[in-house]
Amino acid sequence: MSSPWYPDARPYGVVGSFLTPEDLLRATQRASDAGYRKMEAYSPIPVEGITQAMKWDDNLLGWITFFGGLAGACTGVLLEVWTSTQAYAHNVGGKPLISWPMFFPVLYECTILFAAFGATFGMFALNGLPKPHQPIFNAASFARASQDRFILCIEAEDPNYEEKAVVQFLEGLGAQDIESVMTTEGY
Amino acid sequence: MSLKDMNKEKLVTGDWDYAGMDSQIGGVVLDPARHMEAKVPPFLAKFMPESVRSPWWVMFGIGFVFVNVLLLSITILVLTGIGVWGNNQPAGWGFDIINFVWWIGIGHAGTLISAVLLLLRQQWRNSINRFAEAMTIFAVMCAGMYPLLHTGRPWVAYWLMPYPNVLGLWPQFRSPLVWDVFAVTTYMTVSILFWYVGLVPDLATLRDRATNKFARVAYGMAALGWNGGSRAWHRYNHASIMLAGLSTPLVLSVHSIVSFDFAMSIVPGWNTTIFPPYFVAGAVFAGFAMVIALAIPIRKWYRLEDFITMKHFDWMAKVMLATGLIVAYGYAMEVFYAWYSGQPAELALLYNRGNLANTPYSWAFYALILFNIAIPAFLWSPKVRQNLKALFWISMSISVGMWFERYVIIPLSLTRDYLPSSYGYYTPTIVDFGMFAGTIGFFIFMMFLFIRYLPMINIFEMKELWHHMSHHDHKEHETVGGGKH
């Protein structure tokens, strides 16, 4: 399927929309049972259990945050120990050069700061953001996925993808506004 | 409404659906007409042209005027020097530190609501967390101005940070003031990150709803291409929980560290171990007072009664009552410590606080007791907690009281320490008052810009809450927010 204006357009997938999170969850479960693997559900609110229905899980972000925190703690300690023993070794009120109880607050704040960077930027990076335009945005119903529609997209990359069959499958699930989405983007 | 009825009330009242919530909350941002709906009092309306006759313009105008007062005060300060403030020996700290601590404290309610209540799964936070977080950010901005300007040369404020420089100088990490730099900058950064992460799905909603091209592009850029995919939500929820888990110890540490500025010294009245917990409780106390004081008018002006219900006010008032009692306990312990230490300087301080006849500052101490303990005691009454006018004025009283708390702590101790020869009196100047009024104006200015351009209630969390609650309709006992009533 190509259009005269976008000769490189390729199919991205077929989308269908649902009215409630429960319908979306049921549809996703059925699609997963039917053997589809490359799919994504778009919703205005997080839908509990939907990633399990897709047989997908990812806990990488916890590790990114943890290592962020660890890096922060090391930065804090090294900064304090190096400046007060090497770069600027001064006797302050007879206290030892490494006065660790006094060094705790800065190391603590650095830990939290770097862990928060890990959690925030890690989340954005894993989600592939920022990416202001994505192929799914070409779906006419997509604008409502951030408002009041729950959208399931079965993607063309799926080994079982066959447009007509997918359309029929989604119809069978009671989806509305079924359409096939084209894209010119590399993904 | 009786107490019994109220406990049955839901956290979202009225008849809503997803789209209705979008237009009710998101519409405040996308539809300028929403800002013109509420009426201004007739005595003001007389002076206002039709096109700006609304509370939003009144508040924005007040904010704008005082932002200019702030700019003027800062200009005088920078051109002349720190001498234009009332600080002088022996009171090296004055309005600058009082207001710094006051503003930081106000900010803490935002983090408490967004982080601590998220970890405790208190869903009533959902309708107030967004603007409480915004309040945090603007309050920390106001707070940050004071120490920066008090350095005397704010253009070299970066000297506070550790970086290799030709002077070969590094910060002294044993100083609580350096801890403060790290604590406050970390707090500011993490608060902004948390706030922004919370905003991203709502920005995507605004992007998809906006009809104006500029708004669509601007919100689209800010939303970073959020698509609401289930994988994205999965990581998003992880990130929110982790940021909440990180912000909770952070918020406790920030005000503890602020209190170390005092507690680590040997000045009479400051060197006590009660300072960190009682500063943190005081921060929450002041912060909730500010949330209530802002929520009451905004809820009315923008018809958000269904999202910020009387139940929210009741619970916020209870949080104020509880933290107020902790603060009262702190004051009692300060008196006890002073007596129990048996030290002449501490006892003299007690005398200076309590004796109305012969001491210059005791009026402030009694004002503190009045505003912070006596007036908030009315919150014990459920009827007062349900009376918005009373609640508004009690919140104002707490804001004033918490300011007096810092006033009692700072100039009194500094002008009455160990050497009678260095006794003195602290008198703030007009520039001090200008800065203080100016930061309040700056806060109002920023809050109302925020209300105009960003959704002040978390849209997706309200939808989630509404969805959750509409599924528990049949189970009457489930008041969301935990616990049986």
Descriptive account of the structure:
The complex is a heterodimer of chains A (187) and B (485). By secondary structure, chain A is of the alpha+beta class. Chain A folds into 2 domains: 100 residues, Alpha-Beta Plaits (2-Layer Sandwich); 67 residues, no CATH class. Chain A contains 5 helices and 4 strands; from the N terminus they run βαβαααβαβ. In chain A, strands 2-3-1-4 form a 4-stranded antiparallel beta sheet, covered by helices on one side. The model of chain A has no long low-confidence stretch (mean pLDDT 86). Chain B has 485 residues and is mainly alpha-helical. Chain B has a single domain, classed as Formate dehydrogenase/DMSO reductase domain (Formate dehydrogenase/DMSO reductase fold), CATH 1.20.1630.10. Helices cover 67% and strands 0% of the residues of chain B. The C terminus of chain B is likely disordered. At the A-B interface, β2, α3 and α4 of A face α2, α7, α9 and α17 of B.
Structure characteristics:
heterodimer; A: 187 residues; alpha+beta; Alpha-Beta Plaits; 4-stranded antiparallel β-sheet; 4 strands; elongated; B: 485 residues; mainly alpha; Formate dehydrogenase/DMSO reductase fold; 17 helices; disordered C terminus
Structure in a nutshell:
Chain A is α+β, with helices and mostly antiparallel strands and 187 residues long. Chain A is built from 5 helices and 4 strands; from the N terminus they run βαβαααβαβ.
- Protein chain pair with the most extensive contact, residues per chain: A-B, 64 and 61 residues
Q: What structural class do the secondary elements of chain A suggest?
A: alpha+beta
Instruction: State the end-to-end distance of chain A.
Output: 18 Å
Gyration radius of chain A, rounded: 25 Å
Question: How does the SSE layout of this entry go?
Answer:
The complex is a heterodimer of chains A (about 190) and B (about 475).
Chain A: E1 10-18, H1 21-33, E2 39-42, H2 50-53, H3 60-87, H4 100-126, E3 150-155, H5 163-172, E4 176-183
Antiparallel strand pairs in A: 1-3, 1-4, 2-3
Chain B: H1 3-8, H2 18-30, H3 42-45, H4 55-80, H5 95-119, H6 129-150, H7 176-209, H8 213-223, H9 230-263, H10 275-301, H11 310-341, H12 344-354, H13 362-374, H14 382-385, H15 388-415, H16 430-453, H17 459-470
Helix pairs in contact in B: 2-7, 4-16, 5-6, 5-9, 5-10, 5-15, 6-7, 6-16, 7-8, 7-9, 9-10, 10-11, 10-15, 11-12, 13-15
